[in-house]
Sequence to fold (250 residues):
Amino acid sequence: SNRGIGNFEKVNAFSKKLTLSFTYKEKEYEMEFPYQANKAISTSLKKSINKSFTYDYGVVEFKKIIATKASTVIKAKLKEETDRSVRTDFMQVKLLADGEEIEMLRSGMSSTWYDTYDVELLLEAIPTDTKQLELVIEKFNGYAKLNASIDLQPSSYKVGEKWIEIIDIKQEANQTLVTIASEYEVLFDEVSLQTKDSEVELKGTGDFNDRTEKWIRTLYFDTTGTPQTLKIGGMYYMREYNTRIPIELD
Fold:
Protein backbone atom coordinates (compact mmCIF):
# COMPACT_ATOMS: atom_id res chain seq x y z
CA SER A 1 0.00 0.00 0.00
CA ASN A 2 1.14 3.57 -0.68
CA ARG A 3 1.34 6.00 2.20
CA GLY A 4 2.29 9.65 2.45
CA ILE A 5 1.99 12.85 4.45
CA GLY A 6 0.16 15.94 3.19
CA ASN A 7 0.76 19.48 4.48
CA PHE A 8 -2.01 22.10 4.48
CA GLU A 9 -2.60 25.68 5.58
CA LYS A 10 -3.89 26.28 9.12
CA VAL A 11 -7.53 25.29 9.60
CA ASN A 12 -10.14 27.87 10.64
CA ALA A 13 -10.66 27.46 14.40
CA PHE A 14 -14.45 27.77 13.99
CA SER A 15 -14.68 24.86 11.53
CA LYS A 16 -16.82 21.93 12.63
CA LYS A 17 -16.10 19.56 9.72
CA LEU A 18 -13.18 19.05 7.38
CA THR A 19 -13.31 17.61 3.86
CA LEU A 20 -10.33 15.95 2.24
CA SER A 21 -10.43 15.85 -1.57
CA PHE A 22 -7.98 13.78 -3.56
CA THR A 23 -7.53 11.98 -6.88
CA TYR A 24 -6.51 8.33 -7.11
CA LYS A 25 -6.16 6.39 -10.37
CA GLU A 26 -7.86 9.23 -12.27
CA LYS A 27 -10.90 9.16 -9.97
CA GLU A 28 -11.84 11.95 -7.56
CA TYR A 29 -12.71 11.16 -3.92
CA GLU A 30 -13.87 13.13 -0.89
CA MET A 31 -13.66 12.23 2.81
CA GLU A 32 -15.49 14.22 5.48
CA PHE A 33 -14.66 14.05 9.19
CA PRO A 34 -15.44 16.14 12.31
CA TYR A 35 -12.97 18.69 13.66
CA GLN A 36 -12.63 20.04 17.19
CA ALA A 37 -10.04 22.79 17.49
CA ASN A 38 -9.59 22.33 21.23
CA LYS A 39 -8.46 18.75 20.61
CA ALA A 40 -6.16 19.51 17.70
CA ILE A 41 -2.51 18.61 18.21
CA SER A 42 0.07 21.37 18.34
CA THR A 43 3.83 21.01 18.68
CA SER A 44 4.84 21.65 22.28
CA LEU A 45 8.54 20.71 22.09
CA LYS A 46 11.02 20.45 19.24
CA LYS A 47 14.66 20.09 20.22
CA SER A 48 17.84 19.10 18.45
CA ILE A 49 19.74 16.18 19.97
CA ASN A 50 22.65 15.77 17.52
CA LYS A 51 24.49 13.11 19.50
CA SER A 52 26.04 9.97 18.03
CA PHE A 53 26.16 6.40 19.26
CA THR A 54 28.69 3.93 17.87
CA TYR A 55 27.68 0.28 17.64
CA ASP A 56 29.57 -2.77 16.37
CA TYR A 57 29.39 -1.96 12.65
CA GLY A 58 28.25 1.63 12.30
CA VAL A 59 27.15 4.91 13.83
CA VAL A 60 23.64 6.17 14.53
CA GLU A 61 23.06 9.87 15.10
CA PHE A 62 20.05 10.89 17.14
CA LYS A 63 18.94 14.08 15.40
CA LYS A 64 15.90 15.58 17.14
CA ILE A 65 12.90 15.04 19.39
CA ILE A 66 9.40 16.33 18.60
CA ALA A 67 6.86 16.13 21.44
CA THR A 68 3.15 16.94 21.09
CA LYS A 69 0.09 16.52 23.28
CA ALA A 70 -0.49 13.13 21.69
CA SER A 71 2.92 11.52 21.16
CA THR A 72 6.69 11.87 21.06
CA VAL A 73 8.86 11.25 18.00
CA ILE A 74 12.62 10.75 18.02
CA LYS A 75 14.35 10.98 14.65
CA ALA A 76 17.74 9.42 14.01
CA LYS A 77 20.00 8.62 11.06
CA LEU A 78 22.40 5.78 10.38
CA LYS A 79 25.37 7.80 9.18
CA GLU A 80 27.12 5.09 7.18
CA GLU A 81 25.60 3.05 4.37
CA THR A 82 25.90 -0.65 5.18
CA ASP A 83 24.76 -3.90 3.60
CA ARG A 84 24.79 -5.58 6.99
CA SER A 85 21.60 -6.50 8.83
CA VAL A 86 20.53 -3.35 10.67
CA ARG A 87 17.14 -4.06 12.23
CA THR A 88 14.79 -1.90 14.29
CA ASP A 89 13.74 -4.94 16.34
CA PHE A 90 17.40 -5.15 17.43
CA MET A 91 17.06 -1.68 18.97
CA GLN A 92 16.01 -1.46 22.62
CA VAL A 93 16.06 2.28 23.24
CA LYS A 94 14.30 3.91 26.20
CA LEU A 95 13.32 7.52 26.76
CA LEU A 96 13.25 8.63 30.40
CA ALA A 97 11.36 11.74 31.48
CA ASP A 98 12.50 12.73 34.97
CA GLY A 99 13.59 9.11 35.42
CA GLU A 100 10.26 7.59 34.32
CA GLU A 101 10.14 5.50 31.15
CA ILE A 102 7.96 6.74 28.28
CA GLU A 103 6.27 3.82 26.56
CA MET A 104 7.54 2.96 23.07
CA LEU A 105 4.71 2.52 20.56
CA ARG A 106 6.66 1.49 17.46
CA SER A 107 9.87 2.00 15.53
CA GLY A 108 10.61 2.14 11.83
CA MET A 109 13.47 2.54 9.39
CA SER A 110 13.57 3.67 5.77
CA SER A 111 16.39 4.03 3.26
CA THR A 112 17.10 7.38 1.61
CA TRP A 113 18.11 8.07 -1.95
CA TYR A 114 21.76 8.51 -0.95
CA ASP A 115 22.14 5.10 0.72
CA THR A 116 21.73 6.02 4.37
CA TYR A 117 18.87 5.10 6.69
CA ASP A 118 16.36 7.25 8.56
CA VAL A 119 15.13 5.82 11.88
CA GLU A 120 11.99 7.02 13.64
CA LEU A 121 10.88 6.06 17.15
CA LEU A 122 7.29 6.79 18.17
CA LEU A 123 6.53 6.98 21.89
CA GLU A 124 3.74 8.07 24.21
CA ALA A 125 3.49 11.78 25.07
CA ILE A 126 5.88 13.13 27.70
CA PRO A 127 4.48 15.04 30.71
CA THR A 128 4.25 18.79 30.05
CA ASP A 129 6.20 19.62 33.23
CA THR A 130 9.19 17.39 32.34
CA LYS A 131 12.48 18.86 33.55
CA GLN A 132 14.96 16.23 32.33
CA LEU A 133 15.03 13.87 29.34
CA GLU A 134 17.47 11.04 28.76
CA LEU A 135 17.87 8.41 26.05
CA VAL A 136 19.10 5.02 27.23
CA ILE A 137 20.40 2.65 24.55
CA GLU A 138 20.10 -0.59 26.52
CA LYS A 139 20.50 -2.92 23.56
CA PHE A 140 21.28 -2.33 19.91
CA ASN A 141 22.45 -4.11 16.78
CA GLY A 142 25.63 -6.08 17.50
CA TYR A 143 27.98 -8.30 15.52
CA ALA A 144 30.34 -11.02 16.71
CA LYS A 145 32.95 -12.84 14.61
CA LEU A 146 32.65 -16.59 15.21
CA ASN A 147 34.58 -18.67 12.64
CA ALA A 148 32.71 -21.68 14.03
CA SER A 149 32.49 -25.21 12.63
CA ILE A 150 29.42 -27.10 13.85
CA ASP A 151 29.13 -30.88 13.64
CA LEU A 152 26.14 -31.90 11.55
CA GLN A 153 24.66 -34.09 14.26
CA PRO A 154 21.27 -33.35 15.88
CA SER A 155 22.30 -31.51 19.04
CA SER A 156 22.66 -28.03 20.54
CA TYR A 157 25.99 -26.18 20.26
CA LYS A 158 27.34 -22.99 21.84
CA VAL A 159 28.41 -20.29 19.35
CA GLY A 160 29.92 -17.21 20.96
CA GLU A 161 27.45 -15.95 23.60
CA LYS A 162 24.53 -17.73 21.89
CA TRP A 163 23.57 -21.22 20.72
CA ILE A 164 22.52 -23.11 17.61
CA GLU A 165 20.60 -26.36 17.45
CA ILE A 166 20.95 -28.77 14.53
CA ILE A 167 17.51 -30.34 14.11
CA ASP A 168 17.63 -32.26 10.83
CA ILE A 169 19.80 -32.92 7.78
CA LYS A 170 18.38 -34.36 4.56
CA GLN A 171 19.03 -34.37 0.83
CA GLU A 172 16.48 -33.96 -1.95
CA ALA A 173 16.31 -32.53 -5.50
CA ASN A 174 20.09 -32.08 -5.75
CA GLN A 175 20.15 -30.05 -2.55
CA THR A 176 21.18 -30.53 1.07
CA LEU A 177 18.68 -29.13 3.59
CA VAL A 178 19.84 -28.34 7.13
CA THR A 179 17.14 -27.37 9.63
CA ILE A 180 18.42 -25.31 12.56
CA ALA A 181 17.05 -23.40 15.54
CA SER A 182 18.41 -20.41 17.44
CA GLU A 183 17.15 -17.56 19.55
CA TYR A 184 14.98 -15.16 17.55
CA GLU A 185 17.43 -12.28 18.05
CA VAL A 186 20.25 -14.04 16.17
CA LEU A 187 21.11 -13.89 12.46
CA PHE A 188 24.03 -15.99 11.28
CA ASP A 189 26.48 -14.56 8.74
CA GLU A 190 28.88 -16.14 6.19
CA VAL A 191 27.21 -19.55 6.40
CA SER A 192 28.54 -22.46 4.33
CA LEU A 193 28.41 -26.25 4.27
CA GLN A 194 31.60 -28.28 4.35
CA THR A 195 31.18 -31.56 2.50
CA LYS A 196 33.66 -34.34 2.05
CA ASP A 197 34.88 -32.77 -1.20
CA SER A 198 34.20 -28.99 -1.04
CA GLU A 199 32.81 -25.98 0.79
CA VAL A 200 29.38 -24.85 -0.49
CA GLU A 201 27.90 -21.40 0.08
CA LEU A 202 24.39 -20.94 1.45
CA LYS A 203 21.81 -20.80 -1.35
CA GLY A 204 18.79 -19.63 0.65
CA THR A 205 16.64 -20.09 3.75
CA GLY A 206 13.03 -20.89 4.58
CA ASP A 207 11.17 -20.27 7.84
CA PHE A 208 9.34 -23.06 9.60
CA ASN A 209 8.52 -21.22 12.80
CA ASP A 210 9.29 -17.57 13.51
CA ARG A 211 9.01 -15.32 16.60
CA THR A 212 8.84 -18.09 19.17
CA GLU A 213 11.28 -19.15 21.88
CA LYS A 214 13.09 -20.99 19.11
CA TRP A 215 13.43 -19.54 15.62
CA ILE A 216 13.42 -22.59 13.34
CA ARG A 217 14.49 -22.31 9.69
CA THR A 218 15.90 -24.51 6.94
CA LEU A 219 19.15 -23.73 5.13
CA TYR A 220 19.46 -24.75 1.48
CA PHE A 221 22.76 -25.74 -0.17
CA ASP A 222 23.19 -26.76 -3.83
CA THR A 223 25.05 -29.99 -3.22
CA THR A 224 24.46 -33.69 -2.70
CA GLY A 225 27.96 -34.21 -1.33
CA THR A 226 28.35 -35.88 2.05
CA PRO A 227 27.75 -33.11 4.64
CA GLN A 228 30.29 -32.87 7.45
CA THR A 229 30.16 -29.48 9.20
CA LEU A 230 28.21 -26.22 9.12
CA LYS A 231 30.53 -23.21 9.01
CA ILE A 232 29.41 -19.87 10.49
CA GLY A 233 31.60 -16.79 10.04
CA GLY A 234 29.73 -14.48 12.41
CA MET A 235 26.36 -13.46 13.81
CA TYR A 236 24.19 -10.40 14.22
CA TYR A 237 22.40 -10.19 17.53
CA MET A 238 20.88 -7.78 20.03
CA ARG A 239 23.86 -6.70 22.12
CA GLU A 240 23.85 -4.90 25.46
CA TYR A 241 25.41 -1.42 25.37
CA ASN A 242 23.69 0.52 28.20
CA THR A 243 24.72 3.92 26.84
CA ARG A 244 23.01 7.04 28.22
CA ILE A 245 22.47 10.24 26.21
CA PRO A 246 21.04 13.30 28.03
CA ILE A 247 18.76 15.59 26.02
CA GLU A 248 19.16 19.26 26.91
CA LEU A 249 15.83 21.08 27.40
CA ASP A 250 17.18 24.56 28.16
User: Anything to note?
Assistant: The first strand starts at residue 17 and ends at 24. Residues 95 and 102 are 6 Å apart (CA to CA). The two ends are 41 Å apart (CA to CA).
